[in-house]
């Protein structure tokens, strides 16, 4: 099943097709290696139409970042909310995020691999999304954990770290897939439980100091 | 201080300059967005010289991957070896790897952001390095931990995860640097101790099952 990036209201199918092909090509070849002519051919539109809907390749990238981060933040807001205890919430969030990453694999790869780039226009954009992510993680995970253990890592460590941990399966996919042909594939629920198991061990350690 | 990538024996300074500029440009702009003409201008050589030493942009990328992975594997081999207990070894390795990543930030970013790309020639190259990394981590961390706790995650989770966790600070740098101007910068030793603290909590949990 191919991943779909939903555009803004009033989309028509050409616009969506351009966006979907952009995500697919950027993930496989990289943002910089994908030409607009190639994208037009792949989306079965002409170059003028990409220009009409998006203006530039950067606008496409911003829309992909928007799509990925807004979905990821929604998962964080929903799964980390409510009266459950911290461990239960973290388990639910890690599982929800792992499923979201798997379903939006191409958008994840584009987002992660474009994160360290220097372009000033894209940079402040990413910083804004990143800050929102860290704020939720601070409020819902780090502040409660630090009540018991002042040495618990701050959100500017936990946010990027947790995101990268979860993304590692997809980043290292070429390597992992060669290994898993021998050992059998790991499903996403098992993967999520290994990742949350690691973070939960640290949270439980903080709990014991209470 | 600018990061230096050492080439093979018999290097001359033009060759090294091309390699160093390639790492710097690929990390900032991405592999695909960096043109050979731009690289030639930046390294103060002519295009024919890049061709003479490397043949293609892909050869440059392979040399950067070689440089990064061979150094990272050397850190793993040295820091995870010896008669110390597992917790002490992991602490030493995470600290050593964090320092290595910080000193080779540009090579790290090129390696991580090129990891998921589909190019078949580069793919088997990355898979070969990745497998060596997972073998060391399996032997030195996962096999001992699994003696006490059969649910301890396998190397194909721990290897990519630990690498990505450590890389997260550099991947999210644009975001983190905007936050740290308010809160003060975290040094690499403190960062490493947060990361190893999380993995060690999971290892200690396995130990308690012994």
Structural class estimated from helices and strands of chain A = mainly alpha
Q: Which word captures the global form of chain A?
A: globular
**What's the CATH H-level superfamily name of chain A?**
Tetracycline Repressor, domain 2
Helical percentage of chain A: over 70%
Question: In words, what does this structure look like?
Answer:
The structure is a homodimer of 210-residue chains. Chain A has one domain (58-208): Tetracycline Repressor, domain 2. Chain A has helices spanning 13-29, 36-43, 47-54, 57-79, 86-103, 105-114, 120-148, 155-171, 173-183, 188-208. The radius of gyration of chain A is 19 Å and the shape is globular. With 210 residues, chain A is mainly alpha-helical. Chains A and B meet through helix 1, helix 6, helix 7, helix 8 and helix 9 of A and helix 1, helix 6, helix 7, helix 8 and helix 9 of B.
Short description:
The structure is a homodimer of 210-residue chains. By secondary structure, chain A is an all-alpha fold.
List the helices and strands and how they pair.
The structure is a homodimer of 210-residue chains.
Chain A (H helix, E strand, L loop, with lengths): L12 H17 L6 H8 L3 H8 L2 H23 L6 H18 L1 H10 L5 H29 L6 H17 L1 H11 L4 H21 L2
Helix pairs in contact in A: 1-2, 1-6, 4-5, 4-6, 4-7, 5-8, 5-10, 6-8, 7-8
Q: What keyword list fits this structure?
A:
homodimer; 210 residues; mainly alpha; Tetracycline Repressor, domain 2; 77% helix
